[in-house]
Write a structure and sequence with these properties.
Layout: E1 8-12, H1 19-35, E2 44-48, H2 51-63, E3 69-72, H3 89-94, E4 99-102, H4 105-110, H5 115-127, E5 131-136, H6 140-145, H7 148-160, H8 165-168, E6 172-175, H9 189-207, H10 209-212, E7 216-219, H11 228-232, E8 239-242, H12 249-265
Parallel strand pairs: 1-2, 1-8, 2-3, 3-4, 4-5, 5-6, 6-7
C-alpha cells in the first residue's frame, strides 16, 4: 500500500454486545495494544458498536484519552422529524463518531437499502463531518458470471459520480465479497488486490491520481490473524473491515499488531 495512506483496522460488531460488554471490550483492547506498545500513528484502529453502546464507548474513550476511534453501523438520510427508529448523522457526529458504515450487504439485503438511499447516506455522513465506509462487493452469482469487478466498481461509481473531488477523497471503500462474509471463505490476496486496484483505477479515471491515491480501500470477509498479513501486503489494500473476528478481543488485537508489523517493515 502507499505510504501516504494510513492503514485502518475497523471492527464491525453488528448486533452484538450491550453497553457494558462494549465498555469491557474497549478497555481490554486498549490494554492489549498498550502492552504491545502499539503505534496508532502507523495503523488506525476503529470500532463500530451498536447504537445503544456508542455513548458508553464515547465516555470511556474520552475519559481515558484512548486513541481508538469509533463509529456507527448505519445512518438515516434525514436530519430530524417523524422518522421512528432512525438515527441522524448529526446525532452520531455529536457522539464523537468518526466513521459510519454505509451500504453493508446485510443492510442492502434485510432492510433493504437501494442505491439512491446509499448515495443520500453518504452525503449525510459527509455533511456532518464524518467519513463514510462504503461497502461494495459481489455475490457468488456475479462471481460465477465473471462480472465481479464490474459489479463492485459499479457500486462505487453509483455513489461517486455526483461527488466533488473534496468529498470523494474522504470516502473509505470496503470491498466485501458477499460470498465471504461470515462463511469462513476468504478472497485470496490476489483477488482482494484485483478488486481494490479496479476500484482505485475507476477513482483515478473519475477524479484523477491525487484523489485516487488518498482513498483507503479496505478488505472485509472472514478476515483473521491467519490471513491478515498476506492481505495487507497487497499494494492497494489499506486495511480491514472485520466482522466475526472483531468480537474476539485477543484476535482483533493480534490482527492490529500483525498489520502494524507488516506495514512498518516495508517503510
Amino acid at each position: 500500500m502507499s505510504s501516504a495512506r494510513i492503514p485502518l483496522v475497523a471492527g464491525n460488531w453488528k448486533m452484538n454486545f450491550d453497553h457494558l460488554e462494549a465498555t469491557y471490550f474497549v478497555q481490554k483492547l486498549a490494554w492489549l495494544l498498550r502492552d504491545a506498545h502499539f503505534d496508532y500513528k502507523q495503523v488506525e484502529v476503529a470500532l463500530m458498536p451498536t447504537f445503544t453502546s456508542i455513548r458508553s464507548v464515547q465516555v470511556l474513550v474520552e475519559a481515558d484519552k484512548l486513541r481508538i476511534n469509533y463509529g456507527a453501523q448505519s445512518v438515516s438520510v434525514t436530519n430530524q422529524g417523524a422518522f421512528t427508529g432512525d438515527v441522524s448523522a448529526d446525532m452520531l457526529a455529536h457522539l464523537g463518531c468518526t466513521y459510519v458504515i454505509v451500504g453493508h450487504s446485510e443492510r442492502r439485503k434485510y432492510h433493504p437499502e437501494d442505491d439512491a438511499n446509499i448515495v443520500d447516506q453518504v452525503r449525510a455522513v459527509l455533511t456532518a463531518g464524518m467519513q463514510p465506509i462504503l461497502c461494495v462487493g459481489e455475490s457468488m452469482e456475479e462471481r460465477r458470471k465473471g462480472i465481479q469487478l464490474d459489479f463492485a466498481v459499479g457500486q462505487v461509481h453509483d455513489v461517486t459520480r455526483d461527488l466533488s473531488d473534496e468529498e470523494a477523497e474522504k470516502l473509505i471503500i470496503a470491498y466485501e465479497p458477499v460470498w465471504a462474509i461470515g462463511t469462513g471463505l476468504v478472497a485470496t490476496p490476489d483477488t482482494a488486490q484485483e478488486a481494490a486496484n479496479a476500484v482505485r483505477s475507476d477513482l483515478r479515471q473519475t477524479f484523477g491520481a491525487k484523489v485516487a491515491d488518498k482513498v483507503r480501500i479496505l478488505y472485509g470477509g472472514s478476515v483473521s490473524s491467519k490471513n491478515a498479513v498476506e492481505l495487507i501486503g497487497q499494494p492497494d489494500v489499506d486495511g480491514f473491515l472485520i466482522g466475526g473476528a472483531s468480537l474476539k478481543v485477543d484476535e482483533l488485537a493480534k490482527i492490529c499488531r500483525l498489520t502494524l508489523k507488516t506495514v512498518t517493515s516495508r517503510r
